[in-house]
Design brief:
By secondary structure, this protein is an alpha/beta fold. The chain is built from nine helices and twelve strands. The protein has one domain: 3-Layer(aba) Sandwich (Rossmann fold). The chain is 37% helix and 26% strand. The strands form three sheets. The protein has a six-stranded mixed beta sheet, sandwiched between helices. The protein has a four-stranded antiparallel beta sheet with strand order 2-1-4-5, with helices on one face. A two-stranded antiparallel ribbon has the order 6-7.
Length: 257
């Protein structure tokens, strides 16, 4: 479903991604771990074309995204309309909820199908109610974001992304802005999506969650993948000293002997 080859990205003189290569199969859940500034969130933003990238190639469902080679052999960016079309297939949920404060939870979820897909209002409403029920918020459909907790707002944001019926979901540290007691309710929704076979790439610092829900873990540091594999290996028995140090720092020595 996703194939990334030698992905490179710089911000000015700072090279953030230095040739990242990995793939994600359909229905697979890949968790990306790494310290702040390692490049993990930049990978997600490139997958959704929220960031341009200078080198390498990204393919989603067999199609190269973001760039084309013209008749002169030059690499040129795709039109913005094509990027927008790609974002319909690749949903992304951010740290901040980004809900429209003047619209109810139901209206927030309906907006994508109505405005982007041109769905009939009845159809969009039915889908939105179904998705709010899926994330455990059927009783909050008519509430405005200010009356929802952070965890509830984040679940509305997940429902809003799902309303576009994407092929892939990207989650960028979606629990980092939440109080600890609200983290579990969001992670339960993501765990449910994993059980249903949604293809997902998840950036998180929640190590136990990564261990339980992922098919594969990538550990990124300094713009490169230092280690990758099943969580039973990467988290329970890491081989690199850098990853051992990271796990101790974020989750305690009990994870690493």
């Amino acid at each position: 479903m996703i194939e990334v080859k030698e992905l490179k990205k710089s911000f000015g003189a700072l090279e953030v991604l230095k040739g990242v290569t990995f793939g994600v199969d359909k229905g697979e859940v890949v968790v990306v771990l790494g310290p702040s500034g390692s490049g993990k969130s930049t990978v997600l933003r490139c997958l959704n074309l929220l960031e341009d990238y200078e080198g390498g190639e990204i393919m989603i469902d067999g199609a190269v995204i973001g760039y084309r080679t013209n008749a002169n052999g030059q690499r040129v960016a795709c039109p913005e309309a094509e990027k927008a079309k790609l974002r319909e297939q690749v949903g992304m949920v951010f740290q901040s909820f980004n809900l429209f404060p003047h619209r109810t939870a139901l209206d927030n979820v309906m907006m994508g199908p109505l405005r982007v897909r041109g769905a009939a209002r009845k159809e969009a409403r039915t889908l939105a109610l179904e998705l709010l029920g899926k994330v455990g918020l059927a009783d909050k459909a008519d509430e405005y974001p200010i009356r929802l907790s952070g965890g509830q707002q984040q679940r509305v944001a997940i429902a809003r992304s799902l309303a576009m019926q994407p092929k892939v979901m990207l989650f960028d540290e979606v629990t980092s802005a939440l109080d600890p007691e609200l983290v579990g309710e969001v992670l339960r929704v993501i765990r449910q999506l994993a059980q249903e076979g949604m293809t997902m790439v998840i950036v998180t610092h929640e190590i136990p969650f990564a261990r339980d829900v992922s098919d594969r873990v990538l550990f990124v540091d300094g713009g490169v993948i230092v280690e990758q594999g099943p969580p039973s290996k990467v988290i329970a028995d890491p081989s690199s000293d850098r990853l051992k140090l990271f796990l101790r720092r974020y989750q305690g020595d009990y994870l690493v002997a």
